[in-house]
Design brief:
two-stranded antiparallel sheet, 3% strand, 6 helices
Length: 189
């Protein structure tokens, strides 16, 4: 029987795809760990949207989840690891362009924003806002890593665009389900 636990990480290290051992709090592990967390949050959103009149978003979110697995593998494989790099998928320009198309499509159906919007609405939209913030953290972790090691430049751009898309999709879900956005206004002092 193959067990889920290996005990190889008990001392605070983990293996990258090429087999290199690194501390579990290394910037590379922090980066792909944040991407993994984002993927899990999107799994919650997919569950919440099933059966709602937003089937196209369920399919697209599932596609994003697949991208995030590829991005995690990309980040877990140093560019200089030529052996592992031959079989590890890398996020590319076409992936970023797909997100941009989806942003443009969604925005074309939404009323223009006239103020900042408070995160909330239906539960799925609120979770899309949570996903957006996790995405921004993953992006920050990738930026930190990119200052220390060479990375696929599309990884950072993909996360930047995905954060924008998740915001737009949160608005779209509320819009399609007839829930008004709550605009932010400064409290009088």
């Amino acid at each position: 029987m193959v067990r889920i636990y290996t005990k190889t990480g008990d001392e605070g290290e983990t293996s990258l795809f090429g087999g290199q051992r690194v501390p579990k709090d290394a910037p590379r592990v922090e980066a792909y760990g944040a991407v993994d967390e984002l993927n899990a949050v999107l799994g919650v959103v997919v569950t919440l949207l099933q059966g709602a009149p937003v089937d196209d978003l369920v399919e697209r979110l599932t596609r994003v989840q697949r991208d995030l697995f590829a991005l995690g593998a990309d980040l877990a494989t140093p560019l200089e690891d030529t052996k592992a790099a031959t079989w590890v998928p890398r996020i590319g320009e076409a992936d970023v362009e797909r997100l941009e198309r989806w942003i443009d499509e969604a925005e074309s159906t939404l009323p223009p924003m006239t103020a900042f919007i408070l995160p909330g609405g239906v539960l799925a939209a609120a979770h899309l806002h949570v996903a957006r913030t996790v995405c921004r953290r993953a992006e920050r972790r990738v930026v930190t890593l990119s200052r220390q090691e060479p990375l696929n430049p599309h990884a950072r751009v993909y996360l930047n665009r995905l954060g924008d898309l998740l915001f737009v999709w949160s608005r779209l879900v509320n819009h399609r389900l007839g829930v008004a956005e709550q605009e932010w206004s400064p409290s009088p002092t």
